[in-house]
Specification:
The chain contains 6 helices and 10 strands, in the order E-E-E-H-E-H-E-H-H-E-H-E-E-E-E-H. By secondary structure, it is α/β, with parallel strands linked by helices. It has a single domain, classed as Rossmann fold, CATH 3.40.50.1240. Strands 5-4-6-1-7-8 form a 6-stranded mixed sheet, with helices on both faces. A two-stranded antiparallel ribbon has the order 2-3.
Length: 221
């Protein structure tokens, strides 16, 4: 089976949205459509598992519309908490609300509400919470796409690479919006691509509000 991983599309912080839960920008929606087209070209036939945040489910639903797949809300792919008070005022959507918003969302067999935490999380905490999801999805032997955030996507990469391809831990790629990583699980795990942007025109590559050029300039400085 092929396990694909992506980060949500660019968000729009300027429009009105629930506390801590912005929607996608128009560019973010187009990034998601491009990702869906890439997966369709790759012959994706499986399930999309998404963080329950609005921006991730919106990304997942756009992809799912292109490839005709169900979207399953998956709390382990959620955003992480890095400071005290970060989640004050946050009220995450229920599965019923997500189903009302997005046509491809289906109710998971298990989903505990509230699905978020206000506890500060370390990289090790994030790896520990994505591990059971990865192992469960891989066991099903059906292609899957995990849609998350910078932190949870990073946790998925660290968990898989540490276990199956430690020599590629220092891959040096950046987690742009709607990147695509793919891992082939069989007798041996193959790293097919890591944080690839082949499906995105150069001007569409972003890290949320910042363009690729702006991010690379900051990093070089």
């Amino acid at each position: 089976m092929n396990l694909h991983v992506t980060r949500h599309g660019q968000v729009d912080q300027k429009t009105q949205h629930p506390v801590g839960d912005p929607y996608l920008s128009d560019l973010g929606r187009e990034q998601a459509r491009k990702l869906g087209e890439r997966l369709k070209d790759l012959g994706f036939r499986g399930t999309v598992y998404s963080s329950p945040f609005l921006r991730t489910v919106e990304t997942a639903n756009i992809v799912a519309e292109v490839v005709d797949a169900p979207v399953v809300p998956a709390a382990p792919m959620r955003e992480y908490v890095i400071r005290e008070g970060q989640m004050v005022g946050f009220r995450g959507a229920t599965v019923a609300e997500l189903k009302d918003l997005h046509s491809k969302v289906v109710k998971p067999s298990e989903f505990v509400y509230p699905w978020w935490t206000d506890a500060i999380e370390t990289p090790e905490d994030i790896e520990a919470r994505v591990e059971p999801l990865i192992e469960e999805v891989v066991k099903d032997e059906e292609d899957a796409l995990l849609v998350g955030h910078g932190a949870s996507v990073g946790g998925v990469h660290r968990y898989i690479l540490k276990k199956h391809a430690p020599d590629q831990m220092g891959h040096g790629q950046y987690d742009w919006n709607c990147i695509l990583s793919s891992f082939a699980f069989g007798g041996k795990v193959e790293v097919v691509r890591i944080m690839d942007t082949e499906h995105l025109p150069e001007e569409m590559i972003t890290a949320n509000a910042k363009s690729k050029a702006e991010v690379l300039e900051e990093r070089s400085g």
